[in-house]
Amino acid sequence: MDKSRVRLGYVGLGKMGFNMVERLLEKKYAIVVFDTNEEAGRRISKAGAQPVQSLSSLPGALSSPRLIWLMVPHEAVDAVIDTVAPLLEKGDTVIDGGNSPYKDSMRRAEALKARGVDFLDAGVSGGPGGARNGACIMVGGEQRVFKRFETLFRDLSVEGGFAYMGKSGAGHFVKMIHNGIEYGMMQALAEGFAVMKASPFDLDLAGVATIYNHRSVIESRLVEWLKRAFEKYGEDLKEISGAVSSTGEGGWTVEAAKELGISVPIIEGAVRFREGSQGNPTYTGQVLSALRNLFGSHDVFKKEG
Fold first, then answer.
1. 154: enclosing H helix or E strand
2. What is the pLDDT of residue 147?
3. Residue 4: its pLDDT value, please?
């Protein structure tokens, strides 16, 4: 892929998408963008991207063979593809970089293949910070298509942070499992720190997180984010909601595991906890919400009234 000759079309300028486009602009990509939020388009245009006024005008602003990256909620992917697919030609490529159900990605790959359009499913991990400074990317689809865009994936990733996972759906499947594991790891941290907070020892929880993150077995980015959460919001986390939201991937993991006959009680328990927390907020839930805020910039603050 010669990035000097390719104009990349990019749909979706949310927390992840905006940061990814900024990163690519710094690496001298020519990028045409669309988002329903016109203000996001105006802001990214100051960094050098070219916004278009409608989704249907995006393909026409790109040179052949076209490449369009989608960074939209999974519920919107079909509508976006339905709009742009009739305007694409044989040899064009669509990459879905959001968190889509892997079976949907398999279906979309087949539908686009019938038009002669290539499709890759790219699971992106690392949150907004990773999107800006180098993400971890797991790619599914035909390997020849992956190889064509290795330069793009390398430029979006932290060093060594991208790889080909397998046929269509594999990228989003591996990212789905990643998020399911994340649910379980976060749940264990939240429960453990809730027990420590309730103990008779008046523990410095930020200090505990700090010592855990110095070569202990559970040293991790999650523990580091938890330390930052305690430092930012205080150990009582009074501003943080104990009703924990989710984006669905943990539930998808549980469903996939059942289809495959695999028991996943830890992940399933973490999913059920989040569901139950909506009517029963707890300190454990506050810890989970605080973590979601630190690594994903999710809105987790208590609502007034």
1. helix 150-156
2. 97
3. 52
Q: What pTM did the predictor assign?
A: 0.94
Q: Give the C-alpha separation, 17 to 251, whole Å.
A: 24
Q: Give 108-115's long-range contacts (Cβ < 8 A, gap of 24+).
A: 108/77, 108/78, 108/81, 109/141, 109/168, 109/169, 110/168, 111/81, 111/85, 112/81, 112/85, 115/85, 115/88, 115/90
Helix H or strand E encompassing 179: helix 170-198
Helix/strand/coil (H/E/C) assignment for every residue in 87-100:
HCCCCCEEEECCCC
At residue 302, the pLDDT reads 83
Please identify which of the residues 26, 89, 175, 303 carries the catalytic annotation.
175
Catalytic annotation on 103? no
Catalytic residue, chosen from 38, 75, 159, 182, is 182
**10-residue stretch averages of pLDDT, the chain, 305 residues long:** 71 96 96 95 95 96 95 97 97 97 98 98 95 97 97 97 98 97 97 98 97 97 96 95 90 97 97 94 96 88 70
Return all residues near 255 (Cβ < 8 A) that are at least 6 apart: none
Map tokens 């593809």 to a residue: 81
- Name, in order, each residue with C-beta under 8 angstroms of 39's C-beta and a sequence gap of 6 or more: none
C-alpha 272/C-alpha 146 separation (Å) is 36
Q: Strand pairing of 30-34 and 7-11?
A: parallel
Residue 50 has a CB neighbour count (10 Å cut-off) of: 14
Is there a catalytic annotation at residue 175? yes
Candidates 60, 73, 68; CA nearest to 149 is 68
* β-bridge pairing 118-125 and 135-140: antiparallel
pLDDT at 297: 83
